[in-house]
């Protein structure tokens, strides 16, 4: 039973844009934080952006500030708008949800629910 389903990955040229979507269901929909994380080959998983689904506050990694925007349609649907994509952005992007979190940190170990991941490629 999938509880987080991502969509919207793909391949774009440098400077292009993509929008990722994530829909939560079941236990994952009972959350107070959702976020996007990414993992490139040979690298650790890193936080990209998180949002408090109750208050709407957001947090971004320094590497994506000003280029990426996380937003929510509802408590169980979030988006990641990625603009001005760079060659260092390619990775598998994962949606995550966390329950009873004090703070929506960019720390992947805080989150208990994960999607299957969607590939983002930036290539000319």
Description:
This protein is an all-beta fold and 124 residues long. Helix content is 0%, strand content 48%. It is built from no helices and eleven strands. The strands form two sheets. Strands 2, 4, 5, 6, 9, 10 and 11 form a seven-stranded mixed β-sheet that branches. A four-stranded antiparallel β-sheet has the order 1-3-8-7, with no helix packed on it. A hairpin with a 5-residue loop joins strand 5 and strand 6. The chain is globular and about 40 Å long. The protein starts with a strand and ends with a strand. 33% of the residues are buried. The mean pLDDT is 94.
Helical stretch count?
A: 0
- How far apart, in Å, are the first and last alpha carbons? 37 Å
Strand content: over 45%
Instruction: Encode the helix/strand succession as letters.
Output: EEEEEEEEEEE
* Percent in helix: under 10%
* Major beta sheet summary: 7 strands, mixed
Overall radius of gyration? 13 Å
Q: Care to count the β-strands?
A: 11
- C-alpha geometry: globular
**Secondary structure category:** mainly beta
Mean pLDDT: 94
Stretches where pLDDT is under 50 for at least 5 consecutive residues are none
